[in-house]
Design goal:
Strand content: under 5%
Oligomer: single chain
Shape: globular
Radius of gyration: 19 Å
Number of domains: 2
Length: 326
């Protein structure tokens, strides 16, 4: 028996086996998920599978908890599901909009996720996936200052270019969390400088600029917000994102098989959609938007589209805009 995937599952991927396992997990059939995780897979593909199965499994935590025991993949699946449930329980984008009850639930679930994931790291020391999932724990409810950096070091020691871990590290360095615009942008620039063309980590550049724009355009002070509104369309920002966009699209051969290729293109599309909103698209930017939308699949990522309202609505708006330039 299979079921539709619930709204909290990110859909920016193509993987028939993952589709089958996630839909089965929704109706409490854990076996396909465990069978899938038992297969060898590149680190980013395994990481994506763990993330999506955790999202699909967050409503069947009781079954997973009973099944966890001491097996690495069961512990990993449990920890990922608890992680997903924690962030869903938190609700709001910003902590100041989170109720005390939501925060208490978030902290409790994160603590349980951290325990399961730590057990998974002990059971499978070479696996990068539990370390990547621990990045979410360190971001939302760190046990101590610097935990995010320590866990990130654990990831890159096992999988140096793991995309999701870099995305979470970028978030942790953002001004809205524990860093600043400068720290976040420096991190993004430093990580992409030596990447080969077509690598999905190039999307760190537009992701960082989206974070700057959203942070400053919602900050206190009308003048500051007004000055920030045109940020995505500024010449220096366009140039930097445009260069990263061209490098990503210069790949596009075997790179299309990368588990995070679709979402990387959607991050660029989200940036260019925001440029269209605040400054209008120049011909070269319109061409990039059209290509990123074409490469970005037909199902939206929850992030970063969710920053701009309902992620389905924002994604379809970008697709309609891109269609005008094909």
């Amino acid at each position: 028996m299979q079921a539709d995937l619930p709204p909290h599952v990110d859909l920016a991927w193509r993987d028939p086996d993952l589709e089958h396992a996630a839909r089965a997990l929704v109706v409490r059939d854990i076996a396909p998920a465990l069978e899938l995780l038992a297969r060898d897979a590149p680190p980013d593909q395994r990481d994506l599978r763990v993330e999506v199965l955790g999202q699909a499994g967050q409503d069947v935590l009781v079954d997973l908890d009973v099944a966890a025991e001491h097996e690495p993949d069961r512990l990993l699946l449990l920890g990922s599901a608890l992680n997903a449930a924690a962030w869903w329980a938190r609700g709001a984008l910003y902590a100041e909009h989170t109720t005390d009850e939501q925060l208490e639930r978030f902290i409790d679930l994160t603590s349980r996720a951290r325990e399961a994931l730590r057990r998974a790291t002990e059971a499978a020391p070479a696996d990068s996936a539990p370390w990547s999932a621990l990045m979410s724990c360190a971001l939302g409810a760190p046990e101590r200052e610097g935990e995010g950096g320590e866990v990130f070091a654990g990831v890159v020691a096992r999988a140096p270019d793991l995309v999701s871990a870099h995305e979470r590290r970028l978030q942790g360095l953002a001004a809205k969390w524990y860093g600043s615009h400068e720290q976040m942008l420096d991190f993004a620039r430093g990580r992409v400088v030596d990447l080969p063309n077509g690598h999905p980590l190039l999307a760190l550049v537009p992701a960082a600029h989206i974070e700057v724009h959203l942070h400053d355009s919602t900050a206190p002070g009308m003048i500051r917000r007004w000055r920030a509104m045109d940020y995505p369309g500024r010449r220096i920002v366009r140039a930097e994102v445009g260069a990263a966009s061209d490098r990503l699209l210069a790949g596009g051969g075997t790179e299309r098989a990368h588990a995070r290729w679709i979402r990387a293109n959607q991050v660029f599309a989200a940036y260019y959609n925001s440029v269209a909103d605040v400054a209008g698209l120049k011909p070269e930017d319109a061409a990039r938007l059209a290509r990123h939308v074409a490469e970005g699949g037909e199902r939206p990522a929850r992030w970063p589209w969710g920053y701009f309202g309902d992620h389905h609505v924002a994604f379809e708006k970008a697709r309609r805009l891109a269609a005008e330039f094909r």
